[in-house]
Amino acid sequence: MQQPVTPSDTMRERNRAFSPWTDIDKVVVCFSLLAVALRLVFWNYTHLLWEDGLITLSSAQNLWDGLGLTGHTGEAPVYSFSSPLAAIILVVGEAFSHGMFLMRVLSIASAVLSIYYAAGILRECSANRVSLFACLAYLACDHLLILFGMGGMETQIAATLALATAYYCMTRQFLLFGLAGGLAVLARLELALVPAICYLYLAYLALNRKISGLSVVKSVSATAAICLPWVIFTWIYYGSPVPQTVNVKKWMTGPIRLDLHAFVDHTRLFWEQIAPFREFPLTVSTPVPDAALLLIVLLVVSVFLIGTVVGVYKRSKILLLAIPTILFYLYHAIYNIDKYYPWYIPPFFAMFFVVVGFGFSAIAQKARVAAVILSGIVGIAFAAPFFFCLNTDRLWQQDIETGIRHRVGEELNIMMKPGQSVVLEPLGYIGGPVRTKVIYDKPGLGSKIAFDAYKKYGWGMIDEIKPDFVVLRKKEVKYIDENMPAVLSPYERVAHIYNSVPDTFGSNCVTYNVGQETDFSIYKRIQYALK
Asked: 449 vs 263, which has greater pLDDT?
């Protein structure tokens, strides 16, 4: 005889985590398909390649050309990239002359896996179905995850590895956890925060005899097997396991700021770096007022804090994501990381959004309708920028990256002879075509010689290094002429590459700041020009 259904039975069924599983599987599959579709659209429509991905690509190409794993010739090999995993992927791909193709394909696969791991983490933390929408919408549609991942950087892969590390730790798959944690560190050095917190959690479990010490040893051994060979290689090959890019950016950001006033200032300005549309630092206008974007940020931060507090109260494993995210923000604020390094944030923001999903699940226990509505608003808010920015991204690639900066590099390559040197910036788009020459980039991401000179002399580095060629933007020429006119006196301009793109341009109510990227001049030392 069938038992009557009581109200308490109905409530338990409503709040039971991820039930029935077939419904959740459908949600995961739908968002996975959406993630793949959007990335393929972005790839084929914009053809965008990001500058920092090209810097790493130059090292991979030079390796196969027999010049070593370095960005240029003329000095000892320089560790000129910050993601060892990205370099390894590009090296493998360049064996078939398709490094960027491999990086993009792996980014698409990683996007699907990130959705799988996020759903698995929320299930493991006993979250309900309300937790899914905002979290998976972010992972599938976020503009920066797509832009940098399909632009040839490790950003998407790093986000997935962060989630994979936490997931395998939660589910006590110790070998996979160790491997994922090691790969996460190789993907982005700051992601060491994730396996570090997970290892503290496993140590706690081992001390309380909830897991065996052998399990922790297995994980540590796997992480070490991934990371130690690279550390040893870089120490021998480059002289240090610390990338040159880290040294340069650390110098540029200045000393650690521990005073409360600086921390508050950073927090006050940080909201733009996690806001829809504004998270891309080149954005100067959006179809949504800043006040509305600020409200969205306040909402997701509030829900993140709710998820964290509930996680503490329930001793939930969601803290394995919340704690590294909070520590990353503290690191970001203390070191005053520049907003023009936006690819640092998405891997941690992916973890942030899983905690947000957990927070919406907690809210749904008390106010289900409100949680559903707010989750929908957040998901749509972070998905919308992709569609508005798509054409502007395409214009940026066509008019700036391909139309100006890459063209400068190609013309420079025609002029330069083997063994000649150049001072230039950017190192990826302009430096890439002349990667087999001697490149002293400003401020020295790929050259220790250039970095030492720039620290001492600024643009006076030109007079100190005395390169055969110099590439300068229009505003840089003006600055040098006004402040140190003798620097360019031994040079004459041999090429002027520019277009008529205004300082800000875009479409669909989204505009980017073009800055100084529309007008470049190539200068050559007069002694060579007269020959």
From this structure: 449
Residue 531 pLDDT: 44
Contact (CB, 8 A) for 34 and 397? no
Across 502-520, average pLDDT: 89
pLDDT value at position 257?
66
Task: For residue 271, give the DSSP letter.
Answer: G
Looking at residue 510, the DSSP 8-state letter turns out to be E
| E strand map for 219-362 | 283-285
Single-letter amino acid, residue 389: C
The rounded Cα 375 to chain-centroid distance in angstroms is 25
Instruction: Find the mean pLDDT for residues 11-27.
Output: 53
Q: Exposure string (b/e) for 461-495, b if CB count within 10 Å is 16 or more?
A: bbebbebbbbbbbeebbeebeeebeebbeebeeeb
Residue 441's alpha-carbon distances to 44, 233, 418, 453, 517, in angstroms, are 31, 25, 17, 11, 16
Question: pLDDT higher for 20 or 275?
Answer: 275
**Which amino acid makes up residue 340?**
Y
Segments in 16-98 forming alpha helices (H): 21-46, 51-64, 84-94
Strands across the sheet containing 283-285 = 283-285, 510-513, 504-507
> What integer best gives the mean pLDDT of the chain?
91
Give the pairing type, strands 421-424 and 438-441: parallel
Closest CA relative to residue 143, chosen from 516, 392, 513, 403: 392
Q: Which two three-digit tokens encode residue 475?
A: 């505003």
